[in-house]
């Protein structure tokens, strides 16, 4: 997990390497609360429900992208987690800036592979970092 930037007391973290549910659960466990989680990507036909069962009220909202965004949307509805559907990383970062509040954590921890949108998790993480760092507040 890589710290990217702090904006108005909101911290941004790149955990693009979290390409499975267990890794994302560990990332969520690293924070106390108020997580805006950017998740989704290539559909590896896995069960995402453990991520929702173990989030312990830490996720404030989810920004969903990639092939799995509709699977994750259904789980957000079931577990009553606020969510936003986006088409790409630019929209995801823009939405995070739009909804963030003091002391939130914006965490890219997709629980999915990057294929279909990126060649690898590093490229996805670099795209996230670039868009966060260039964002004017």
UniProtKB/TrEMBL annotation:
<keyword id="KW-0963">Cytoplasm</keyword>
<dbReference type="InterPro" id="IPR005762">
    <property type="entry name" value="MurD"/>
</dbReference>
<dbReference type="InterPro" id="IPR004101">
    <property type="entry name" value="Mur_ligase_C"/>
</dbReference>
<feature type="domain" description="Mur ligase C-terminal">
    <location>
        <begin position="1"/>
        <end position="111"/>
    </location>
</feature>
<comment type="function">
    <text>Cell wall formation. Catalyzes the addition of glutamate to the nucleotide precursor UDP-N-acetylmuramoyl-L-alanine (UMA).</text>
</comment>
<keyword id="KW-0961">Cell wall biogenesis/degradation</keyword>
<dbReference type="GO" id="GO:0071555">
    <property type="term" value="P:cell wall organization"/>
</dbReference>
<dbReference type="Pfam" id="PF02875">
    <property type="entry name" value="Mur_ligase_C"/>
</dbReference>
<keyword id="KW-0436">Ligase</keyword>
<comment type="similarity">
    <text>Belongs to the MurCDEF family.</text>
</comment>
<dbReference type="GO" id="GO:0008360">
    <property type="term" value="P:regulation of cell shape"/>
</dbReference>
<dbReference type="GO" id="GO:0008764">
    <property type="term" value="F:UDP-N-acetylmuramoylalanine-D-glutamate ligase activity"/>
</dbReference>
<keyword id="KW-0573">Peptidoglycan synthesis</keyword>
<dbReference type="InterPro" id="IPR036615">
    <property type="entry name" value="Mur_ligase_C_dom_sf"/>
</dbReference>
<keyword id="KW-0133">Cell shape</keyword>
<keyword id="KW-0547">Nucleotide-binding</keyword>
<protein>
    <recommendedName>
        <fullName>UDP-N-acetylmuramoylalanine--D-glutamate ligase</fullName>
        <ecNumber>6.3.2.9</ecNumber>
    </recommendedName>
</protein>
<dbReference type="GO" id="GO:0009252">
    <property type="term" value="P:peptidoglycan biosynthetic process"/>
</dbReference>
<dbReference type="GO" id="GO:0005737">
    <property type="term" value="C:cytoplasm"/>
</dbReference>
<dbReference type="GO" id="GO:0051301">
    <property type="term" value="P:cell division"/>
</dbReference>
<keyword id="KW-0067">ATP-binding</keyword>
<dbReference type="GO" id="GO:0005524">
    <property type="term" value="F:ATP binding"/>
</dbReference>
């Amino acid at each position: 997990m890589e710290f990217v930037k702090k904006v108005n007391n909101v911290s941004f973290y790149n955990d693009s390497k979290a390409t499975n549910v267990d890794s994302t659960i560990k990332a969520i466990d690293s924070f106390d609360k108020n997580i805006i989680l950017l998740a989704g990507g290539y559909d590896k036909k896995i069960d995402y429900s453990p991520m929702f069962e173990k989030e312990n009220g830490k996720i404030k909202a989810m920004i969903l992208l990639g092939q799995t965004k509709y699977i994750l949307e259904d789980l957000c509805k079931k577990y009553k987690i606020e969510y936003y559907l986006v088409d790409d990383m630019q929209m995801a970062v823009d939405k995070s800036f739009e909804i963030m509040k003091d002391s939130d954590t914006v965490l890219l921890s997709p629980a999915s592979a990057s294929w279909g949108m990126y060649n690898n998790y590093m490229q996805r993480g670099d795209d996230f970092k670039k868009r966060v760092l260039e964002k004017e507040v």
